[in-house]
Specification:
Elements: E1 11-14, E2 21-24, H1 34-47, E3 49-52, H2 59-66, E4 103-106, E5 109-110, E6 113-114, E7 123-126, E8 138-145, E9 153-157, H3 158-163, H4 167-173, E10 177-181, E11 201-205, E12 207-209, E13 216-218, E14 225-228, H5 233-247, E15 253-256, E16 263-267, E17 271-275, E18 285-291
The structure holds N-oxalylglycine and manganese (II) ion (MN).
């Protein structure tokens, strides 16, 4: 008999030249040994996005798995209301119906209200909670129900984006900070001519250093990075447009085509992600955990 987690090693299969690896030979519903967690972290630092196929995690198992990687972020507003039993999302336990550690990403509506966040359609590239002082370290998504087509999640390698920038752009952004603003949109930038002080916002270094790998990475995204500090408005807009276009070139990207049971997790400090459109009348449900982060280092 083979016991996973002791005799066998993880199999790590790269998913292309940009970033991402599929990890097989592991059942994430089981408790993991510290050695196994270290192995996963090693692959994560190397590949930035990890994909596990064919998993089946209860809410409790997803929470336990995620907690191997840090402190679970707790939503202040009491989490997603896991609307209906029919989705089997709260495992029959009313106590976790309002689970502050879990969030649904879903377009499913009950009584006209989405049961989750970022419900419909395509989404521009972004950093999860990049507008906060301590953006999430990691995001961990588990696919429950998927549309027949579309709704792919696209991941960009921001180390590679930084390393391959033209020298003039590197010089323009060196030592600068940028303003990130959350305006609850999916495909539109914030209007800087309006008062945004009531929207969550924060300044982060444009070029950040990853605290574990020590590598330099570009820390901006099309959806929420609004302005580079110290540049004139037009120059800031031009530089940001060039940065986004560069970071979203095909050679930076892994496009994930979801299957039910997938667990996909990414490192928000060196990866941005976006989403393609999907048929709005088809249901899409993913369950999300995030891990608390730290201030972004220059
Ligand atoms: C998220 C997110 C992308 C998707 O959960 O933060 O951006 O494909 N999801 O739904
Ligand atoms: Mn996101």
């Amino acid at each position: 008999m083979t016991v996973l987690g002791t005799e066998t090693g993880l199999r790590v299969t790269p998913l292309g030249s940009a970033l991402g690896a599929e990890i097989s030979g592991i059942d994430l519903s089981q408790p993991l040994s510290p050695e196994r967690v270290e192995e996963i972290l090693g692959a994560w630092r190397a590949y930035l996005v990890l994909v596990f196929r064919g998993q089946s995690l209860s809410t409790e198992e997803q929470r336990r798995f995620a907690a191997n990687f840090g402190t679970l972020y707790e939503r202040r507003r009491g989490g997603t209301s896991f609307a209906k039993d029919k989705y089997g999302l709260y495992d029959g336990d009313p106590a976790i119906r309002e689970d502050p550690n879990l969030m649904l990403v879903s377009n499913v509506r009950v009584d006209g209200k989405p049961i989750g966040a970022v419900a419909d359609g395509d989404m521009w590239f972004h950093i999860d909670s990049g507008y906060s002082e301590r953006p999430y370290r990691y995001t961990i998504l588990h696919a429950i129900k998927l549309p027949s087509t579309g709704g792919d999640t696209l991941f960009a390698n921001m180390y590679k984006a930084y390393e391959t920038l033209p020298e003039d752009l590197k010089a323009k952004i060196a030592g600068r900070k940028a303003l990130h603003i959350h305006e609850y949109k999916r495909t539109a930038k914030v209007d800087l001519t309006k008062d945004f002080t009531n929207s969550p916002h924060y300044f982060h270094p444009v070029v950040a250093t990853h605290p574990e790998t020590g590598r330099k990475t570009l820390f901006v995204d099309r959806l929420m990075t609004a302005r580079i500090e110290g540049l004139e408005a037009q120059e800031s807009a031009d530089v940001l447009a060039r940065l986004f276009d560069h970071a979203e070139r095909p050679e930076m990207i892994y496009a994930h085509k979801w299957r039910p049971g997938d667990v996909v997790m990414w490192d928000n400090r060196c990866v941005t992600h976006g989403r393609t459109d999907f048929p709005h009348h088809e249901e899409r449900i993913l369950r999300r955990c995030t891990i608390e982060g730290d201030p972004i280092l220059p």
